[in-house]
Amino acid sequence: MERTPKTVKGRNLIIISILYLLSGTIVRGGTGEAHRDVWLSMLINLAVFTAVTFLYCQVCKRHPNRDLFSMFYEAFSKSSALCLSLIYIAYGILIGSMSWGNFAHFTSLNILPDKPAYLSLLFLALVCVYGAKKGIYAVTKYASFIFPFVIFILAVTVGLSVRHMDFFELLPIYYDADSFWNETLTLTAFPFGDTVLLFVAYEALDRDEIRPTGFMSGVWFAFLILSLIMVRNVAVLGAPVLSQLRYATYHAMGVVGVEDFFKRIEILLVFAVIFCDVIKGVIALLFVSEGISKVFGVKKRETLIIPAAVFVAGLSLTAFDSNESADTVLGILRYFSLPIQVLGPGLIFLKGKLRKNRSKEVVK
Amino acid sequence: MKRILMLIICMLLLGGCQSYKELDRMQIVSGLYLDTTSESELRLTAETVSFEGGKEQPRIYDAQGQGIRECLTRMMTECPNELYLSHMEVIAISEEFAKNHLNELVEHILRDNSIRFATPIVIVKGETASDILPTDDKKEIISYNLSNLLENSENTGRSVRREGYVTIRELFDVGETTVLPVLEKKNETLTASGCAVVGDGNVLFLSEEETMFLNILSNGFTKGSIGLEIDGRPLSVIIKKCDTSVTADTSQIGRVQYKAKTKFTMETAKEALEDNEKNAINTYIRNGVYELYSKLTSNDLDALGVMRRLKAVHPEAFRNLTEDKFSDSELIFETEMRIGEAIT
User: How far apart, in Å, are the Cα atoms of A20 and each of A91, A247, A259, A299, B135?
Assistant: First the structure.
C-alpha cells in the first residue's frame, strides 16, 4: 500500500514561521541602532515582508508541493537555474551558520562560560540533524508542541518587566533619521532576511491551505512578539544602553525579580532560544541539503544533511567565531538580503505570468 | 543495532558533571567596595560569603590596581576559590571614585556578564567605601543588611533607591546625571539617608530634607512626614499621598522650563488648620523645592532629567538648543493641597 505523503497544515505553517523568525532575534532584540524607533523600523519591515510573503504564496499556488530549487529548474534554463540555486544554497549556509554561531556565542558567554563554544553547538547540531532527517512534518509537530511554552515564557517575562519600564525611553519618535534607516535595513536581514528559507515548509503545505493569510499570519505574529520584546528592552534598559549590549533581551530580563522569591528569570529565555534555534537549524539544513541534491542530482537529500550540518557548523565556528565578524557580515548582508528574498521567487513569478500571457495569446 | 550505536554515541556526549563547581569551592561575593588610592590607582574590596561549619561567614579580600579589571584579576590570584559575582547585593563606591571612575564602573558592568544589572550602586559618605565594613569580629554579612537598609529608608521618602540598570540608563542618557543612595556610618551605626547627585565628575550630596524635595519634584515621593515651626509652635504634617505631574518646555526667550504640579493629601493632629498654618506649609515646600532646583542648576546637575524630558516631549526645541541649557533653566512649581477635606 502506498503511503500518503504527510502534509503541513496552515496552522502549523504559522507556528513554524513564528518560531523560525523569533530564533536569534529574541535574545538579541534588534541591533539597537534605531534606538527608540525600533518599533517603527519593525512596522516598515512588516509592510515589506507582508508583500514578500504574498509573492511567495502566489509562487506556491502556481507550483504546489514543489521546492524552490525544482521551481528554478522548471522555470529557467539549466545554467540560469544552477546560478540561482548556488546563490540560494550559499545564502542558506550563511543564514544557518550565523544562527548557530549566535547560539554558540550566547551560550558560551552567558550560560556555560567555562565550556567551549563548540560543545553547545555540537548538541544543537545533533538535534537539528535528527530533526532534518525526520523531515519537515516532524518539525511541525515539534513546533506545535513547544509553541505554547515559548509564548508562555515570553508573555511572563514581558509581563513581569512592566514595572521596570520607563516609557519616556520610547520618545522622541524619528529623532535620528540615519540610525533609524540603518536599523530598518538591518532588520530586513535579521530576522526577516531568513524568510526565503521557509520555502522548505511551503513545499509541504497542504494544497488547499495555500492562502495568502496563512503565509502572512506567521510574519504578522512574529512581528507582534518581536516588537513587544524590542520595545520592552528599550523601555527597561534605555536606548543608549541597548546599543552597547549584544544580548539585550537577556540583560533586560535579568532585572526582573519578584522580591527574593522569583529571581534569575532570564534563564527561561535560554529555553525559548534553544527551542527556536532548533527549528531554524533544521530549516536551514533542509534548505541547503535540498539545494545541493538538486544541483548535483542526488536522489536522497537525507544523505546530504550530515555533510551540510558539518559545513554549516564549521563555518559558524570559523567565520563567525567572534561578534565582530558576525556584525561585519550582517553589515554587508543587509544590502543584499531583501534582493535575495525577492530575486528567485520574483523571477519564477514573472516567468509564470509571461507563460500564462503567451498561452492566452496562442489560444486567441 | 542502529539504536544501540546511537545510544553509545549519545553517552559519549554526556559530559555529566565534568568541571562542576561545588558551592564551597566558590567565593560568592555579596558586595563590592570601590575606592581610589591615588589619581589612577583603585582599591577594590570584596565581601564574600564562605561556608564554614555549615554557617555563612563573611570573608574580606582586597586588591589594588590601575582599573577594575586589574583589581579583580589580582584578587582572583589571591583568593583560593573562584570569585562569583552574580549574587552580589550591592556595589558601594566612595565619593572620589564616583567623581573620577563611575563611568569606568558602568562600562565594566556592561562588559562583565557575571554582574547583574539589577545590583544597586550606592555611594558612601566618608573617607572610603570599605569603611562601612565591620572592623571587629562581627560575623554578619554587611552587604545583605545594606539591601534591607536601603529598602526601609526609601519608605520614609528621605532617601532614594536605585537599581543598577536605572543608574546605567541615566548615565547614558541626555544630561548624564544620576542620583545614588547614600550610606553613612555615624557612631558605628550605618544609616541610609539623603542622596548624592553624580554627573560629569561632580558629586553633590543632598540632605534628607533636600532628598524629600527631590523626590517630590521627580514624583518619587509617596508618603512621609514633615515637621515645621510656626510662631514658635511645632507642627507635624503627615503626607499621605503625593502625586506630581511634570513636563519640560522652552519659554519664548528660549529658556528651558521644568513645570511641576504636585497634589498633596495631608493629615495633621489638629482637626482644622488655620490659614496661616496652611500658608506656612505651602511656603515651606515651595521654598525647599526652589532652593533645591537652584542648587542643582548652579552645579549643572540635571538630577530631574529635565533635558531628557524636553528631548522626549519637544524634540525640535531640544534640537534647536545650541548647548546644554540645564544650568540656565527655570522651575515652575504649582501645588494643590488637600488637608483633611479643605483644599488650599
Answer: 16, 18, 34, 27, 57
